[in-house]
Every structure is written in structure tokens, then in C-alpha cells.
Known about the structure:
Layout: H1 3-24, E1 27-33, H2 38-50, E2 59-65, H3 73-82, E3 87-90, H4 93-102, E4 108-113, E5 132-136, H5 143-154, E6 161-165, H6 170-177, H7 179-187, E7 193-195, H8 199-211, E8 216-219, H9 223-227, H10 229-238, E9 243-245, H11 249-252, E10 257-261, H12 263-278, E11 294-299, H13 300-305, H14 312-317, E12 320-322
Parallel strand pairs: 1-2, 1-3, 3-4, 4-5, 6-7, 6-8, 8-9, 9-10, 11-12
Antiparallel strand pairs: 10-11
Helix pairs in contact: 2-12, 3-4, 8-10
Amino acid sequence: MKRREFIVAIAALLISRRRSQAEGMPRRVGALGNSQNLAITKVLQEGLRDHGWIEGKNLIIDNRYFEGHAERLPALAAELVALKPDLIVCSSPQAALALKSATASIPILFVAVADPVGIGLVQSLSRPGGNITGFAAIAPGGFIGKRIEILRELVPGASKIALLVNPDNPIHRLELAEEIPRTALKLGVALPIVEARTAEELDAAFASAAAQHADAIVDIGDPLTFQQAPRVVALAAKHHLPATYLFRQSANEGGLIVYGPDLFDLFRRAVGYVDKILKGTKPSDLPVEQPTKFELVINMKTAKALGLTVPPSLLARADELIE
């Protein structure tokens, strides 16, 4: 073999060996969430496995949970950034904003954030820009009004409907300033606001709704109420308040009615973005996607306990009736 051919062959061998070593190194993914959800975790693990990513083999996942305490988010975000992962996945607007403040270089993928453009996470849905992309929780425009209309089909005489909000949630602040006033005017209903930042404040919020003689209540949807779903449902029952929720977990806990995005579908779709980003695609090249599946779930047992008759119009549209 000539000297030049020998050098080329050795160089090719070294490059091939380096590439194999690089491909064999585990990739690291950080996850910042509200609390551990075993069902969603299973969806992610199965989806990643389908793409060839197996935790403990070629994938390391570092989980951090803020357990409904938003004040912990900056420190937890800093912890994950310090690990220098290849990607960080999050599932709340508060977590996404904390991560955006913590890094402008590590890719961030959010799942189930209602208005990522409105709160400044991305420049637009089609061109997110920067290091962030993900999956929105709702399609913008009138979603709260839609939920109230469905609730009023079940409680036709409701003219005062309390809205349970977390003032620390940037999505809620945006909705309070824009969508909620328009909705009240359009539907001709009073929408008193009751607030809860912590689990302990939920009791006072429901007591306030009852004291204002609300006919029903809307859980706008927040990491706090997601984590505290059993408590929220129990408080609605205690105050005899028909309530609508955003995520089906609440209906499973005994909540009256749920209308919201199919979380499992969002996380299944998010796995595809995880795979692409780990293989080198930039978040800025992946448009923010909106939910395509929504669920209407009615807990018939709770409706009966509240003395409500579910109209045929809702029965026909429901994706699931919990007996």
C-alpha cells in the first residue's frame, strides 16, 4: 500500500471510530415538571423506545419536580442547565419561562403550554426562533368561552360562574387581561375571580366563590390544580358547586365535567420532537404545534349527586361517560 493511501485509510478509520464512540455515548435529557405522573411517564418511555432511545442504555433522564411551588423553579432550572443536557423538556408555562431565563443555548421543548406566543416564549407558532419550541395546550381564541358554554348546557340557569385562577400563572394573567372580559360581555354572565397560589389557598378560594353565590366554577387549569385535583374536586363537592376542569384526571377523581386537550396525545407527539432534537434538529426549525384532540368527559355519578340532568346534546358529544 502506498504511503498516501495508508494515511487516508488510517484517517478514515480514526474518523469512523470517533463517530462510533460519539454515537454510542448516552444523550442526556432534563425534565422539569410539576409532579411525577406515571401514566405520562409510561407514554414517554414507550414513545422514546420506539425511536430507539432507551433510558439507562443510550439515554439519561434527569427529573426535577416543583410540586406546585413555583418559587422553586429558578433553582431547579439552574440545576438542570448545570448538567449540560442535550435537551430539557417541561410541561408548564412557569417552568418554560424559568428555563428560558436560565439558558439561551440548550434546546427546550415545552408540552401543554396554552399561549406560548402571548407569554413571550416564542416569536410565533410557525417560526418559534431561539432555542425553544413545543406543543400548545389549546388553540388560541375563545377557549374559556367554549368551556363556559358547555358548563351552561349542564347548568342552564348559571348566570354567575366563578373562575379559579392562579395569579402567578402567566397564562392566567394574560387571560384575565384579555379573554375573560370579552367572554363575560359576549355570554352575558358574571365571572367573579377567585385566586389560589398554594394548596392552602384553595379552601379560601372555594369559600369565596360560595360566599359570592356563584352558580358554578371553572378551574382554568394550572399545575397547582392539576397536582391538587382530589382536593379541588372535594372542595367543589363540599360547596355544592358544579365545576368544569381542563384535564381528564379531574373527572377520574370525581370532577363533574372536563373539556380540554388530550394530554397523552400531546406527549406522544412530543416524543417525535425529542427524537429530532437529539439527532441534531434545531428547535427554531420545528414549528410549535397545537392540539388536535380534545376530550369531553362527564362524570355521571357527580352530576346525579348535584341533582343535574345531562342533556342529550352533551351525551351525544361526550368522549366518555364515567358512571
